[in-house]
Amino acid sequence: MARKQAEGYLSAKEARAISRSNRKITNELEKQRKRKNVPETEYLTHMKNPNNAVEFDDLHTFFFTDVGTVRAVDGITFAVPQGKTVGVVGESGCGKSVTSLSLMQLLQRPQGQIVSGEIRLNAGDRAYNIAKTPDTVMQTLRGNMVSMIFQEPMTSLNPVFRIGDQVDEVISLHAQTMMSKEDVRARTIQLLDMVGIANSEGVSKMFPHELSGGMRQRVMIAMALACEPKVIIADEPTTALDVTIQAQILDLLRQLKDRINSSIMLITHDLGVIAEMADFVVVMYAGRIVESGTAEDIFYHPAHPYTIGLMESKPVVGKKVDRLYSIPGKVPNPVNMPDYCYFKDRCEKCIELCNGEYPGEIQLSETHRVSCWRYADGKETGRNGK
Predict the structure, then answer these.
(1) Strands (DSSP E) along the chain, which ranges?
(2) What residues make up the domain containing 376?
(3) Number of helices and strands (H, E) in the chain?
(4) 310: part of which helix (H) or strand (E)?
(5) Does 267 fall in a domain?
(6) I need a surface site. Which of 87, 199, 221, 343 has the fewest CB within 10 A?
(7) What's the pTM?
(8) Is the sign of the CA dihedral 287, 98, 105, 241 positive or negative?
(9) Residues 96 and 284: beta-carbon distance below 8 Å
(10) DSSP-derived 3-state class of residue 75
(11) CA-wise closest residue to 290 among 264, 267, 309, 265
(12) Are 285 and 95 in contact (CB under 8 A)?
């Protein structure tokens, strides 16, 4: 009797077929990306709202792997207004970091590709569609217009170069005007001072391993702010930091945002950080946005069962429980996503409509939107009665 193969098993023949098919797709996409002398008309665009710093419009970012196509970001639409902080929240693997890497054009190519959609970046006198911007132009935008504070400073900083040399390099590469070595070093010292490093000259001569986690994170912030970008992406900026250092880093980000009048896209799964920092919140699940709104909408009137589950799973000061709530089940296989609501198999509030196709976006108020069939008739209310 033939042995039954495990679910998700691929034979060598099937794996080869998938690999060949994906290679054809990625080769075509890479061919488009590597073209030279691309006319400006292909990547210049117009902002839908000139008050936005960035607009994501139906963005699809896929990874073409040997076991299938992973739809890491599957049709998301949201905006980052100028001078505001937008928090992107969700559990690990929901597509938060891939969204930010798409904006920076730092996807692991050729497997990772922006397949369709637009990312519009407001550069003041013009707007760029990042999804189609060639590498040569992107090099001038990255660092100047948009920069990123990476998740783990110890892996982002080069262990064999001194701190000052690494910050100097960012300024030298991206400064709009030619600067002498003395001016570059003076700017480096100024940046280290600005992020709250007391002995800035001494620290500039140190190696990364000689600094604490909080100091390294401050150096990463200094590098991100070197050219005063319009958009700062903070990808888990407080991971692995203790509570007091975390509070200092968040205060620092808030102060610097106001000082240089930039927008922050804050990526985290820490709801406490989102509550403290964000003006608007985007909740992602399995590559899609399930709910979005102001911080007040999301924290006081959560609507989607996933958002409600996230809120119930966080500890509350003064409330004693034997065990924190955890959302049952697991995220669906990203290579083989269902054609119905991705959260249905974990949802405790399913209705008959949930057996149909994936729900569209439903507007609950001027700022609050949710993708859930429970609100299709307009009668359902959120957890706190909205």
Answers:
(1) 44-45, 52-65, 68-81, 85-89, 112-122, 127-129, 146-149, 231-235, 263-268, 280-285, 288-294, 362-363, 369-370
(2) 286-386
(3) 12, 13
(4) helix 305-312
(5) no
(6) 199
(7) 0.89
(8) positive
(9) yes
(10) strand
(11) 309
(12) no
- Give CA–CA dist 78/106, Å, rounded: 20
Residue 114 lies in a domain: no
User: What does the block give as tokens for 267?
Assistant: 């990526």
Residue 145 lies in a domain: no
Give the separation between CA 88 and CA 225, rounded to whole angstroms: 20
- Count of other CB atoms within 10 angstroms of residue 219: 26
> Using one digit for the tens of pLDDT, what is the confidence trace for 189-200?
999 998 888 899
Residue 154 and residue 52: Cα distance in Å, rounded? 33
Q: What one-letter code names the amino acid at 316?
A: V
Number of domains in the chain: 1
CA dihedral of 76, 81, 83, 86, whole degrees rounded to 10 = -30
Q: What is the DSSP string of 25-57?
A: HHHHHHHHHT-SS--GGGTEE--SSTTEEEEEE
Question: Is residue 141 one of the residues assigned to a domain?
Answer: no
Task: For residue 378, give every residue at least 6 positions away whose Cβ sits within 8 Å of its Cβ, in sequence order, or none.
Answer: none
- Residue-wise pLDDT for 288-347, tens only, equals 999 999 999 999 999 999 999 998 888 777 777 778 788 888 888 888 889 899 999 999
315: exposed, middle or buried (Cβ count in 10 Å: 0-12, 13-18, 19+): exposed
For residue 229, whether the previous peptide bond is cis, meaning omega lies within 30 degrees of 0, is: no
